[in-house]
Amino acid sequence: MGKMKSFVLVVVALSSLMFGGCALTTATVDINYTPQSGVTAVENAKSVICNVQVSDSRNEKVKVSSKKNGFGMEMAQILPAENVAVTFQKAIEYELKARGFGLSREDSLVTIDADLTKYYNDFKTGFFAGDAVAELNMGVTIKNKKGDFLYSHQFVAEGIERNIQLMTGENAELALEKALNEGMQKLFADKTFIAALLKAKN
């Protein structure tokens, strides 16, 4: 019986620790993008003017995560301080400018459409610690001025903040930022994406 009582006490203590005393309070997170390092200008990129459009097709458009208590039950919502479509648009535009591409809605030669179908953090509970796991699913297409499709690809990325003790907004934010950064890395590492942009000027 003594061992059983000790086990129960450990579970209750862990639950209380991960509950954090604020699981019932809605959290707002600032999802910040970290620009890629070592980026150089792409030859002939200056002559390609891009129009970036990001649409939000997620099933859950309001929140990006939910707090959980020590038993894995969803509690208060975790909301983004900025519309996630705007956050992604800024990230894509930043990386385009870093590579020498121009940006304009009116005078663009090419339109980049990014469609977010998933961007959400879920907390995975463990016995002594948990993980914040953010998943990103984004479809990207490129069209020239005539409306011809030059590129289409689906990107999946993941961000994990491991061994956390609190299932709160701060840890969700870290995982979401990692997923955003990985998504941008995959997009701009795709040589066919850059090639399609350059093709638009022909």
Structural features:
202 residues; alpha/beta; Rossmann fold; five-stranded mixed sheet; three-stranded mixed sheet; 31% helix; elongated; disordered N terminus
Query: How does the major sheet shape up?
Result: 5 strands, mixed
**What strand line-up does the widest sheet have?**
5-2-6-7-8
What is the CATH topology assignment? Rossmann fold
Helix content: 25-40%
At CATH level 2, the architecture is 3-Layer(aba) Sandwich
Percent strand:
25-35%
> Strand-and-helix sequence, N→C?
HEEEEHEEEEHH
Outline the structure in words:
This protein has helices at 2-19, 84-98, 169-189, 191-199; strands at 27-29, 49-56, 65-68, 74-80, 102-103, 110-124, 130-144, 149-164. The protein has a single domain (2-199), classed as Rossmann fold (3-Layer(aba) Sandwich). The N and C termini lie far apart (79 Å). The chain has a 5-stranded mixed sheet with strand order 5-2-6-7-8. It is built from 4 helices and 8 strands. The radius of gyration is 21 Å and the shape is elongated. The longest helix has 21 residues, at 169-189. With 202 residues, it is α/β, with parallel strands linked by helices. This is Lipoprotein. It comes from Citrifermentans bremense.
